Amino acid sequence: MTISMTRRGVALLAASVALLIATPVLAQNSIKFGYAISRTGPNVGGAAVTTIPNYDLWVKEVNAAGGLKIGDKRLPIEVVHYDDRSNAEEAVRAIERLINQDKVDFILPPWGTGLNLAVGPVLNKAGYPHLAATAVTDRAPELAKRWPNSFWMLGASSDAARTLVELLVKLRSEGKIGDTVAMVSVADGFGIDLSAAARPALTQAKFKLAYDKTYPVGTQDLAPIVNEAKALNPDVFIAFSYPPDTLGITEQSRIAGFNPKVFYTGVGTAFPLYKQRFGANADGVLGIGGWSGDSPAIKDYLARHKAANDGKEPDRWASAVTYASLQMLQQSIERVGKVDRAAVIKELQTGTFDTVIGQVKLQNNMPTRYWWVGQWQNGEFYGVAPTANDGAKAVAVPKPGWKAP
Amino acid sequence: MTNALLTGLLLGGMYALVAMGLTLQYGVARIMNLSYGEVLIAAAFAAHGLFTAWALSPLLGLAFVIPASFAVNYFFYRFLLLPLVRRARTRDALEVDSILATFGLMFIVQGVMLTIFGGAYYSYSFFAIPIEMFGAQMAANRILAFAVAMVIGLALYLGLTRTRIGTAIRAVAVDPISAQLVAIDVQRTSALAFALGGALVAVAGVLVSMFLTFSATSGVIFTMKALIIVVMGGVGNLLGCLVAGLLLGLSESFVATYVDPGLTLAVNYAVFLAVLLVKPAGFFGRAQR
């Protein structure tokens, strides 16, 4: 009995030692990346526009160049991916599977604030760098402290609202607009956060908030909202909306002939679909996000993205940031020169990176510069605020009148 | 006031249009079709494709989409649902089976659309010109959708009440067992009603695509709305469908204009509950058993 126990023990020990030795001895001939992304469910719209094309593009480009440069050789990227079905539990399960079963070297984040928050603790516990490129949350600074491996690339939503109000204050002081504002917001995460931040900021800046209403997600007729806002004849119209509503509100405003001096819509304004749908009528519309449309790096990125995606353009906000976050991860891994996740995290925290959105150096795991307000000008969605950013275009106000399509 | 009234009517007309097909499928064929909204979205994609690839107006596109959807839905009924119909001992059993079967079908149709079109939002601009009516600016494409809904509603009503096959359809809706006694082929009639419902939802999909942004996964919203309207109007009753649709549209528009746009969803369900409390079988439904 004792003997057999010992024998089994020895066998087990031998096996585990063999495994332990075998793993590092086996020469690594690829680097394994894993991700779980929403290929079904309500998040598909965002993931399909902003995240998936950039992951595909980046992997294709790195592998075309021979792979990631580790030491003096190049290792191609191998990818394992799952569908998180837009579901937090599913996303967490997939990430755990990537870590424990697939034993991937690095994990790319899911799309959206909710899912990034959901997978944050797991990635932190396992010590994987977590470059949340499509999460906007006011708790980003706090989260970056709690999970030192997490990087919050899109910043805090209240900054978006505050930057917009600062821009309005500037326009008012230049005499370009008056002080009546009509604001609507979708009754869901994004709309609630932004309107909650904009409300006090507007009142503090002595704007008259003539209309301030929310509407449920999936509202199919936005005519009553637009008509009400129009009746108040505001100088500024703000809609913290989701993509379908962004398109609906714009369409309805054009039809109702509602043309305030400042016309701002939410998520989706920066989508290529917006330009495609409204053509010249997009001109002058303000929205959340933006990029330095004239920078050579962005122009080059746009061209490569189109070439790799059957001519499909990226969105003009989180797409470039997502791609930049991949470049940062790549540069960190190459600088560290091996799959040492702790060292990669350290490099991300302290290094300076050349990316399509310019030079990025993180502070407290967050970028120091964001585009919060963009404007369609001659078919490109330029960042216009914060006005102090490099490459900020002057905002064109008042918005030109709607043209017949 | 005019604004709220007109907007409500246009929205209500669209709701009624969306729900008409389901009232035939559920009321006559007794199939609780959970993949209904997916068929609507498929038609919307078809209209979008025809419009962007060949600049074919969605109205002309109907000439392709209607027969195609009729055929596909006939096929669904014939090969997917008929075995369930044959197996089911009672209508209630069929309802449960059909819910499960069409729930699966929903994922298949959605999956196919996701593979082909991806998850992105789709939208195009057609006939989106403002038209002035009684001093209010309305979108021409919405007015068009409303007009088509009314025409189809009327044509269907006449078809169901004035023709032989329409009478047979109504007979099956009322009592499929007795209908057999007067030599009505219940299975064929049900198949026809189901396919007709499919053709109707395709029309709704094409018209809705002219002014709503959609994606491969947005079908479920339409299934839900159609379901509320069908139950509210009385299952299998076209007139009820029209009235319920208009009521929902008007209540949404008035609440959004005069109370708060945030309450539209609440009002939808409040009206639904109120109708069910007063008339459990819906506006024009007969109490069963």
Automatic annotation (TrEMBL), chain A:
A GO BP entry: amino acid transport
Protein name as annotated: Leu/Ile/Val-binding protein
PANTHER family the record matches: ABC TRANSPORTER SUBSTRATE-BINDING PROTEIN (PTHR30483:SF37), LEUCINE-SPECIFIC-BINDING PROTEIN (PTHR30483)
Ranges of residues in domain Leucine-binding protein: 30-379
InterPro entries to which the protein is assigned, alphabetical: BCAA_transport, Leu-bd, Peripla_BP_I
Keyword line: Amino-acid transport, Signal, Transport
Keyword Transport among record annotations: yes
Coiled coil: none
Residues making up the signal peptide according to the UniProt record: 1-27
Gene: livJ_2
Superkingdom of the source species: Bacteria
Pfam family, one: Peripla_BP_6
Similarity remark: Belongs to the leucine-binding protein family.
Automatic annotation (TrEMBL), chain B:
Topological type in the membrane: Multi-pass membrane protein
GO biological process: amino acid transport
One of the record's GO cellular component terms: plasma membrane
Annotated keywords: Amino-acid transport, Cell membrane, Membrane, Transmembrane, Transmembrane helix, Transport
Alphabetized InterPro entries for the sequence: ABC_transp_permease, BCAA_transport_permease
Subcellular location field: Cell membrane
Main localisation: membrane
Chain ranges passing through the membrane: 6-24, 36-56, 62-80, 100-123, 143-160, 190-214, 226-250, 262-284
tRNA processing in keyword set: no
Organism domain of life: Bacteria
One Gene Ontology molecular-function label: transmembrane transporter activity
Coiled-coil segments on the chain, per record: none
Family: Belongs to the binding-protein-dependent transport system permease family. LivHM subfamily.
Name listed for the protein in its UniProt record: High-affinity branched-chain amino acid transport system permease protein LivH
Organism in which the protein naturally occurs: Variibacter gotjawalensis
